[in-house]
Amino acid sequence: MKGKSKEVIAVAFLAVMVMMAFVGIVSAVTIENHTMCKDTESRIATNSTGYAPLPIDETTEFYLTDSEAICLVQIERINRGDTFRFEWYNPSDLLYQLNNSTTDPYFECWYTIYSNVTKAYTDAQGYILLNVGFVNISPPILGFGTCWLSSSLKIDRCPPANKIGNWHVDFYYNDEKQFTETFTISEPIPSLIYVLDTGPSKNPYPSIFGTHNGMIKLNQTIEVCKIYTYPCSGTGGHTKYAKIYNNSWSIETLPWNGYKEDWHNRSFSELFKLYANVEYNYTIRTGSYPQIIHAKSKDVTGGTITCTSFVDANGEAYTDRIPAIRLE
Fold first, then answer.
1. What is the pLDDT along the chain (328 residues), one digit of tens a residue?
2. Among 42, 96, 312, 325, whose Cα sits 20 to 30 Å from the Cα of 122?
């Protein structure tokens, strides 16, 4: 009897192993990673022969002009029949979905999650309200694979654009909440003007070409690759040569090549930075009839420009002649 008991136990164990091999082991799911981002890119996954959606522009700050907010989840040890869902909540902490009284039509749009497919229920504007998915993938033996799930919230020209504030998305797997991602939707930041620009002169005449020397001091750091010269109307006013420098550094424009192409703009030898609250010197040689600002110093877009000397084509010297230029 004892020997047969051992045989029965051995056979039973073998049967369980065979069943596990064909049916699969039900394992506890593991959330490996989750993030918010503005876009994704499909690439070969690390330590895998398959493709994975990698986040682009990870952030928790979104603007009304952004196309969408994406919640991306990486899961390990999934099982056939597992369920998942993303619940998006607006700043009023209400589940953002169509209520029972709405007449707006529902339609289903498939949303590929690599080996998996989930159905996203949307409103007429294509706004994803609630993503609910059912894991149904191959091979049948699961519990050791990686799965990437994602859901997106349409923003630009969709209802969320009217809901500025703190949002959050809850992710559930098998009806158990796994995590909450919080994020904001806000007005876009106004475009910053990263230039030094005197603007055109209100009184450009009398105008004459010559050599300008002076100083500039910026209130913001800018990158510069060219200098634009404002010409007097109907003339060929331009910069023949420009140099920007300080005690330890200098850069010059490329050689003047005549009135060809966009001759109002002169390129420097390379892209460079001018830093905020640092004084730089300039030397600018002009030709024809460039616009001149008749002032010793002037606050302009991006900082301050000051004339130390201007010697015109006749050899006359001045200390209140600023060239009308733009560095960008």
1. 444 443 333 333 333 333 343 344 445 778 888 999 988 776 554 444 455 677 878 899 998 888 889 888 887 776 666 777 888 888 989 888 432 222 222 222 222 232 233 333 333 333 333 344 444 333 333 344 567 778 888 888 788 877 899 999 988 888 889 999 999 999 876 655 568 999 999 888 889 999 999 999 998 888 899 999 999 988 889 999 999 999 989 999 999 888 887 788 899 999 998 988 999 999 999 999 999 999 999 999 999 999 999 999 999 999 999 999 999 8
2. 42
**Residue 159 to residue 98: CA distance in whole angstroms:** 11
Amino acid at 298: K
SS3 143: coil
CA 263 to chain centre: 34
Contacts of 170 (CB under 8 A, 6+ apart): 86, 87, 89, 177, 179, 180
CA R_g for the chain: 33
> Nearest 5 degrees, angle CA 98-CA 130-CA 39?
125
Find tokens 């596990």 and name the residue: 20
**What is the CA angle 248-254-256, rounded to 5?**
135
Domain with CATH 2.60.120 in the chain: 196-327
The answer to whether 78 touches 30, Cβ cutoff 8 Å, is: no
Four-way CATH pick for 25-186: 3.30.420.380, 2.60.40.10, 1.20.1050.10, 3.20.20.150: 2.60.40.10
| Full-model pTM | 0.45
CATH number, domain 196-327, options 2.60.120, 2.60.40, 1.20.120, 1.10.286: 2.60.120
